[in-house]
Design goal:
4 helices, six-stranded mixed beta sheet, alpha/beta, 129 residues, 6 strands
C-alpha cells in the first residue's frame, strides 16, 4: 500500500480507494497544500477518493471550500468523493452552512466505502479474504 506524507497530510492508495488523511488544525495556511494534494489525486483518477478528517481539531472555512471544490472536480472527472469525520470541528461548519446534502460525512472508512459502493455502482467491492 503506497503512501506519502505532507505536513498534516498522508496519502494512502489501494486498488479501490485513495485516502487523504489530515490531522491537527486545518486552517488557511494548510488550504493550498490540501487543494494541491486533492487536485493531484483526482487527476490520477482513483476509483474513489476519501478525505479522512477524523483527526482534525480545527477546520477553517477555507478548508470547507477546498473540500467542496474537490467534490465538484471529482464529480466532473468521474472520481467518487467521500469525507470521514465524526469530529465537531468538521461537522459543525458543514452542517451550519447547510452542506450536509452535498458532502455527507461518514463515521469511518468502512462507512465511506459502503456509501461509495452504493452511490457509485461501478465500484466493485474488495475481494474477500
Amino acid at each position: 500500500m503506497p503512501s506519502y506524507e505532507f505536513p498534516s497530510l498522508t496519502v494512502t492508495t489501494t486498488r479501490e480507494t485513495t485516502v487523504v488523511a489530515a490531522r491537527g488544525e486545518l486552517d488557511n495556511a494548510v488550504a493550498e497544500r490540501l487543494q494541491d494534494c486533492l487536485t493531484r489525486e483526482i487527476r490520477l483518477r482513483p476509483r474513489a477518493l476519501v478525505v479522512d478528517l477524523s483527526q482534525v481539531d480545527f477546520c477553517s472555512a477555507g478548508i470547507i471550500r477546498v473540500l467542496l471544490d474537490a467534490h465538484d472536480h471529482g464529480r466532473v472527472d468521474g472520481v467518487p468523493f467521500a469525507v470521514i469525520s465524526a469530529r465537531r470541528a468538521v461537522q459543525r461548519p458543514i452542517s451550519a452552512l447547510g452542506l450536509d446534502h452535498l458532502m455527507p460525512l461518514h463515521a469511518d472508512l468502512a462507512a465511506a466505502e459502503d456509501w461509495l459502493t452504493v452511490s457509485t455502482p461501478y465500484l466493485s467491492p474488495s475481494p474477500a479474504g
